[in-house]
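User: I'm writing a tutorial on reading structure tokens. Could you give me a worked example: one chain, its sequence, then its tokens, then a sentence or two explaining what the tokens reveal?
Assistant: Sure. Here is the example chain.
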Amino acid sequence: MYVRQYEHTKNQTDLHGLTLIELIISLAIVSLSIGLGMPAFIRWTQETSVRSQAEQIQAVILSARSYAVARNEWVRLQFTDKTGLPTWQIGCVTVSINCLGIIDKKSYSESNPVRLAAGLANTAIDINNPLEIGAGLPAFISFNSQGMATNQIKDKEINRLDVLHKDKPEDFRLTIKIESSGDIKICNPRVTKISAEYCG
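And here are its predicted structure tokens:
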């Protein structure tokens, strides 16, 4: 009787197992699913990196503008890396009691996947045409005590920053527009007029 019970249990177990062919087919389906989904996942991570960096840069530009108003002085935000790394520093145009040199700064290593390109205000470049990584850099934006970027036409003052992924700059980019009034906007050159991110 004990032997029969063992054989009965063993036969039930065999019925619930996978054959080698079923296992190979299952692995093939999983591999195919991963293979098809991987490019979309990589694109999503690249776009997320670009968007996150663009939002950080927008916040830095707004900080520089706020420092200028709060200190009642000209304050300059410089993008200092000619290779396009989003390295920056905020400082005073003229050192005074209210504004003692460098206020804030941040550096990035080569491992950062996002790069910048700057559009100079005295150069007419269609916003639909992407800039090459590192173009126009190093460059800067200066804000006066009213928070306006009125010096855009002088020196290397910029009115546009393209934010791109270093591996696929042609696939996705965001543009930060800096108006002479001091207004800042992140826009996406690929969207239509009905989108809030339209660059028009």
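What the tokens reveal: The chain has a mean pLDDT of 86. The longest helix spans residues 20-71.
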